[in-house]
Amino acid sequence: MQEFDVVVVGAGAAGLRAAIAAKQAGAKVALLTKVHPLRTNSGLAQAGINAPLGPDDSPEAYAGDILQAGDGLCDPAVVQNFTHQAGDAVMWLERAGTPFNRAAGGRFDRRRIGSNSRARSLYVDDRTGHVVMQVLYEQFQRERIPLFADWFVTSLALEANRCVGVNALGLRSGSMDSFAAKAVILATGGFTRMYLPSTVSMGTTGDGQNLAYQAGVSLIDLEMVQFHPLACPGGKGLMITEAALAEGGQIVVAGGQPIAGLQGATRDKICLAIAQASRNGAGGVWLDLTMIGRQKLHQRLPQTLDLIAKVAGLDPAKDLIPIGPVAHRPVGGIEAGTSGQTSIGGLYACGECACTGLNGGGRLAGNILTEMVVFGARTGEAAAAYAKSAPAAAFPAGRLDEEKKRLDALISAEKTEYTAGRIHAELGALMDAKAGLLRDAAGLQAARDQIHALKDKYARLRVKNQSPIYNYELVSYLELGAMLNVAEALVAAAAARKESRGAHRRSDFPARDDRIGISHTVVRLVQGEPQVDTRPVVAL
Amino acid sequence: MQANFSVYRKEPGAGSKAGRSTYTVELPEDATVIDALLKIRDEQDPTLGFRGSCLHGYCGDCTVRINGKAGFSCAVKVAPLAAKGGEIAVEPIRNMPVIKDLISDWDTFLWDKIDVIKPWLEPNGAASLDGEELIDDKVMAKVRQAMSCFYCGLCDEGCTVLPVDFKFVGPAALTKASRFLCDPRDHATAERLRILERPKGMWDCVHCFEASEHCPREIAPTERIIEMRDMAFKHGITNEKVARHHHSFANSVRNSGWLDEGRLAIESEGLTNIKGLMKLLPTAAKAVARGKAPIPFLHHKRPGADKIARIIEKAEAKEK
Asked: Of B50, B73, B103, which residue sits at a domain end?
């Protein structure tokens, strides 16, 4: 067993930022991650990182845009607090070495993306997340924080409503170990791999949400799943950054006619317009970047140009790119305060796996990275402070042995009718069709029933690979279990919200309905079943 | 479409022998190599080990050799390879120790090497805490280009030094060092150059340009290494042997118009470095025996040497 003050699970932007903050606050920190920090899904964020730093901007104006994108579901106090910290958090990244693009005169250049009312997104070409991740990893290395890469956390260690560490499987060694900690931070990212197609990386499977949910923590606003409007089906969900629109690109139907009214619209509105146009028999919807010109594409969108060529086999300087909405990022997640605290003592959550009430029903474009660094830092500090004052708690004896036995029991040469890949494929298609961009009661009921059936198959599934080292069959199995549990909770939440708001669109309840009360959807696991409740949004 | 794969296999552990497994898979027309590997692992062989993450060509985790060419298994389409008939060979990338099957040891290959070069910014303190530091975008563009590196390993895979000396820090880590050396916000230039001039550092590069040829992001690692060496000379930070080699080389060309290889070898070691000079003897003896010894006192001027000297003078004046 290893002992730390703070254990961070997940090495995306939020996890790294939290680990750095906790270490700087004096805690003994370790970071566990199933994939190396520079291979995480945080690198997917491309267009920019919001901060109200421009002369025409203010935290108040920024807050106004967030509230609008959140469609009534944001917690205004959280938003206000956040927009006052965003500038410092992004300047911290600049001081640490982020080479943001500069305008003439050497000041930061800013992009206006999505429904931002100002040019507010600092950016690094079209690979902002990729470069921000490098800077965070540089600072993480500088702090000499022990990195346990290729470690998969299989369970939380709980003792009297307190989290006292985790059990984890070392993929390289093939052996289990316990990590005792006074505070555990979940920063495991999203879960949209439960949808297929999906823009996200293979490991974006809701592991942290599932750990918290199984431990009795509520999941909030899970029905709010953002679809990305500019995904390319020829590239299997390859996402094209919204910066492409900021640079002059247009969404067009057959004949090259642009779809009207999309300038400055929120993602959910653009997605619906594209879906509508496709349904109207427009013959397809395309992204037209040809007017930008090869030279400017190369200068301003180099990664986009490269990926569209390599992955989708198209030349954006010449070809129209077929696009459609694809599942992108969750807005909801583990119920967490603005310092990441959950309902379990010593258990924290930040980044995409958490739901603080900042984003409400839909995240403003360019906000994901800001959210990760603001809440990452605060959660790291809070966890370190908790670890300092918390009484010592013994790691429950025998818990590691129990966990080893549980995993050993999964491994069997016995043949099963199904494979994890097939169950995942069925789940992905099901979520996309029934709990996707447009939902209705009958579809959600069918999704619920089919997820039950898939869970039955999963319960009979066994891991055949008996070789302990890099047993990715076992990892996939555990990830699939997390996706099935979170999918079940998501479908319950979506069925309960009988209105259309933010990213949640119901064809049987097509309008926003404020009469039923503006509330968060709260899902808790009660006797193995998701139980849905609501919690009113707290006005200022 | 049906495709046949021949995949490199190796069990973990020092003593295990490498082999191959063959698989036939039914795939959709737009399948990539990682789709095939995922399907094989799911349906045919759960023990097959390989890495992957983003699935869309931007994270660098799934780099392998496909039919002898290094690339990303998530971006290489199966259809054109299957159309050629025969088996599609999938192997781990070169120069990297293998842990299991296609899973290579990125720690010793890359991450540990990057750790050596002080991979974080040392701010120069020029910027006030609340104000923006004004920097020309052309300067930032060079930093951005270095940071477009996604650690795919292709430069190190192509490196001609790493196969003979795995302790060489390699072009990927040197590119990372260049990211700080071309950043005006960093103040640790001298310290960085002292780290890079250590044995197995930037002077071990043989500037074969393979790294630049292999880089999928046009980051030009080799040119960056050459630039850092120039920077070291400008800062007077270079190890003695390299400095002597450099001066001898330049003097020889200035004086005779071409390279006096015998003198270069002796002067690089240092005229008072008896131990170093003794080490040259066996090579010198072999060269003499084969009639290939460059004897310093027999070295003569080439025709037009004066013109070459004038070119050097002009270039030096221009640089000043």
From this structure: B103
**A267 is a catalytic site residue:** yes
In a domain, B113, yes or no: no
- pTM to 2 decimals? 0.95
B57/A contact by beta carbon, under 8 A: yes
| B132/A108 Cβ within 8 A | yes
CB within 8 Å: B147 and A124: yes
Distance from CA of B304 to the nearest CA of A (A): 45
Which of these CATH numbers, 3.40.50.410, 2.40.50.100, 3.30.390.30, 3.50.50.60, describes A2-223+328-389? Answer: 3.50.50.60
In B, minimum Cα distance to A472 occurs at B49
Residue-level pLDDT at A94: 94
Domain boundary among B159, B187, B219: B219
Q: Nearest-CA distance from B121 to chain A in Å?
A: 6
CATH of A230-326, one of 1.10.10.10, 3.60.15.10, 3.90.700.10, 3.40.50.1580: 3.90.700.10
Same domain flag for B185 and B246: no
Please indicate whether, in this complex, the C-beta atoms of B103 and A310 are within 8 angstroms of each other.
no
Interface of B with A in 132-151 (CB under 8 A): 132-137, 140, 143-144, 147-148, 150-151
Is residue B25 in some structural domain? yes
C-alpha A116/C-alpha A111 separation (Å) is 9
pLDDT tens string for chain B (320 positions)?
Answer: 999 999 999 999 878 889 999 999 999 999 999 999 999 999 999 999 999 999 999 899 999 999 999 999 999 999 999 999 899 999 999 988 999 999 999 999 999 999 999 999 998 776 665 678 899 999 999 999 999 999 999 999 999 999 999 999 999 999 999 999 999 999 999 999 999 999 999 999 999 999 999 999 999 999 999 999 999 999 988 888 888 888 899 899 999 998 988 889 888 888 888 888 888 889 888 888 888 877 777 788 889 999 999 998 998 888 77
Is the residue at B231 inside a domain?
A: no
Do B75 and B16 share a structural domain? Answer: yes
Mapping DSSP onto H, E and C, the string for A345-407 reads: ECEEECHHHEECCCCCCCCCCCCHHHHHHHHHHHHHHHHHHHHHHCCCCCCCCCHHHHHHHHH
**Secondary-structure class of domain A399-511 per CATH:** mainly alpha
Locate the chain A residue with the closest alpha carbon to B43.
A419
Q: What is the ipTM of this complex?
A: 0.95
Q: What is the pLDDT of residues A206-246, one digit of tens each?
A: 999 999 999 999 999 999 999 999 998 777 889 999 999 98
Using DSSP, state whether A506 is helix, strand or coil.
strand
Domain count, chain B: 3
Q: Report the share of chain A in percent with pLDDT over 70.
A: 99
Q: CATH number of the domain that B128 lies in? A: 1.10.1060.10
Q: Which H, E and C letters describe chain B, residue by residue?
A: CEEEEEEEEECCCCCCCEEEEEEEEECCCCCEHHHHHHHHHHHHCCCCCCCCCCCCCCCCCCEEEECCEEEECCCCECHHHHHCCCEEEEECCCCCCEEECCEECHHHHHHHHHHHCCCCCCECCCCCCCCCCCCCHHHHHHHHHHHCCCCCCHHHHHCCCCCCCCCCCHHHHHHHHHHHHCCCCECCHHHHHHHHCCCCCHHHCCCCCHHHHHCCCCCCHHHHHHHHHHHHHHCCCCCHHHHHHHHHHHHHHHHHCCCCHHHHHHHHHCCCCHHHHHHHHHHHHHHHHCCCCCCHHHCCCCCCHHHHHHHHHHHHHHHC
